[in-house]
Amino acid sequence: MTSLKSDLEVLVRLERAHGRDAFLRALARAIDFGRYRAHDVESILLAGDGVARPTQAGRALIVELPVVERRSLSDYALEVNS
Question: What residue numbers bound the domain in which 26 lies?
Answer without folding.
Answer: 1-49
